[in-house]
């Protein structure tokens, strides 16, 4: 579930702000560490007079290429400025490339129209749930050959990248990712005298903490589970996974809904406890991602569940909270000794299959231009310096496009360690995080259906969890899953 298109810091780290090493104008120097595919070599050609000349063969840098790039929306002024800088640097290396900006953001209800009208950008953003869907529709290019030539493919975060590797073929490039976490406003707990739960916490710990902080008369909730839009079903799915449940299974070439299981009932019953037993959720519970994160930012709720960096960015740099007031926890285990499973998702860039081979290659070079760049580390250093000057905090993502233990990951950490305004995650959290990928088939449709279930549960006391899930599974199965032929 991609819910951070407005999140600045993840994008800063993931590529929009990193600077690439520049080579000569034709981009053929080995010193360019911007992730470009190698240009074709030159061959010695002998004519009838036996005069040998070195002539470039199939050199893409000598041909005019136009690419329409994925561009930030108008509200992201700082990121737009950084993207403009990247465009300038890219064209210094590739002066043969004309770049057209397109700020369309991926929408599952719009992509078919865009592709049919041939209006989709040369490359565009999408999220983890869409891999199978886009591949089956033929709306993403197979970039396996470009990927195999990529110098830094072995340093990529494989947990994230594997979401867009299907049947051994590569169909996208990871930007950043997340495992759903729970952010806790420690200051609110302290003010109510509520004990900080252990990092290795459980559903009961979450329930008791939320109940202890909630004060309905003052409009304060202990936790703000999202109750509007697809994000409502997305939030709840963490508890389905923690209870050992699955969204779907593949059986005999068919996709079968499985979330109407005992695990699903346990997860839905826990939501009923938060709502009706603890009275711990907002009175106005119809909150989307922005609403719930806004409530946390304004200290109107003590806990919110999402990808960590976007929530913390708003809490610290817009809400005025201090780093020590904002704790990042894994999702709670259903019971002691259980897994702290959170939905694993992420942002990806994919290439338009209607683009020409030259356009696809230049799009790939643009996507990876700032990845694994020493100059990118210099740019990151400059960003951190500027953030210090501006009195703002920098919040790195928990999961980035590179592997944390890669050479580049270690270099990046060394840059972070130079500054005191970089948010520090507890070292204990990484050992507890358990990411589970979103289902590959019709996940957004499943989320939307479950959002209806959550809304009914929050608005009506005494709902029957099993009956709700059976009805939801029947809808998803007949309306969506039965139309799929799975491999």
TrEMBL record:
This is ABC transporter substrate-binding protein. It comes from Paenibacillus odorifer. SUPFAM superfamilies: Periplasmic binding protein-like II. Pfam families: SBP_bac_1 (PF01547). Keywords: Signal. PANTHER family: ARABINOSE-BINDING PROTEIN-RELATED (PTHR43649), SUGAR-BINDING LIPOPROTEIN (PTHR43649:SF16). InterPro entries: Bact_solute-bd_prot1 (IPR050490), SBP (IPR006059). Residues 1-19 form the signal peptide. The keyword ATP-binding does not apply. It comes from the Bacteria.
């Amino acid at each position: 579930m991609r819910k951070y298109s407005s999140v600045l810091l993840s994008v800063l780290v993931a590529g929009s702000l990193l600077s690439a090493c520049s080579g000569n104008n034709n981009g053929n120097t080995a010193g360019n560490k911007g992730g470009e595919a190698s240009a074709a070599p030159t061959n010695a050609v002998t004519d009838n007079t036996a005069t040998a000349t070195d002539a470039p063969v199939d050199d893409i840098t000598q041909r005019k290429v136009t690419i329409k790039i994925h561009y930030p929306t108008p509200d992201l002024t700082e990121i737009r400025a950084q993207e403009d800088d990247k465009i300038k640097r890219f064209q210094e290396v590739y002066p043969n490339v004309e770049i057209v900006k397109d700020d369309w953001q991926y929408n599952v209800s719009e992509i078919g129209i865009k592709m049919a009208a041939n209006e989709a950008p040369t490359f565009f953003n999408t999220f983890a749930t869409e891999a199978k869907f886009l591949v089956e529709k033929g709306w993403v290019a197979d970039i396996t050959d470009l990927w195999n030539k990529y110098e830094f493919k072995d340093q990529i975060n494989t947990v994230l990248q594997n979401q867009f590797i299907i049947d051994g073929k590569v169909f996208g490039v990871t930007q950043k990712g997340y495992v759903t976490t729970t952010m806790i406003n420690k200051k609110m707990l302290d003010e109510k005298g509520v004990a900080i739960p252990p990092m290795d916490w459980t559903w009961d710990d979450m329930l008791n903490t939320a109940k202890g902080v909630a004060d309905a008369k003052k409009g304060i909730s202990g936790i703000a589970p999202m109750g509007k839009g697809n994000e409502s079903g997305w939030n709840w799915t963490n508890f389905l996974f923690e209870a050992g449940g699955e969204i779907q299974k593949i059986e005999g070439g068919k996709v079968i809904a499985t979330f109407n299981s005992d695990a699903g009932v346990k997860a839905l019953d826990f939501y009923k406890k938060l709502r009706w037993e603890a009275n711990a959720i907002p009175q106005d519970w119809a909150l989307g991602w922005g609403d719930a994160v806004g409530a946390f930012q304004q200290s109107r709720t003590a806990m919110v569940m999402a990808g960590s960096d976007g929530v913390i960015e708003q809490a610290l740099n817009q809400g005025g909270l201090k780093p020590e007031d904002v704790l990042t926890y894994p999702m709670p285990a259903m019971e002691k000794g259980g897994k702290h499973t959170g939905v694993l998702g992420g942002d990806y860039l994919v290439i338009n299959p209607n683009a020409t081979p030259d356009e696809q290659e230049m799009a790939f070079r643009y996507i990876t231009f700032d990845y694994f760049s020493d100059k990118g580390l210099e740019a990151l250093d400059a960003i951190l310096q500027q953030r210090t000057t501006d009195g703002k905090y920098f919040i790195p993502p928990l999961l980035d496009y590179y592997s944390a233990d890669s050479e580049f990951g270690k270099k990046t950490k060394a840059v972070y360690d130079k500054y005191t305004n970089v948010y520090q995650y507890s070292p204990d959290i990484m050992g507890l995080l358990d990411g589970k990928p979103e289902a590959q088939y019709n996940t957004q449709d499943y989320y939307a259906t479950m959002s209806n279930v959550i809304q009914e549960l929050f608005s009506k006391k005494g709902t029957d969890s099993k009956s709700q899930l059976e009805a939801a599974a029947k809808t998803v199965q007949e309306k969506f899953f039965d139309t799929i032929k799975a491999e």
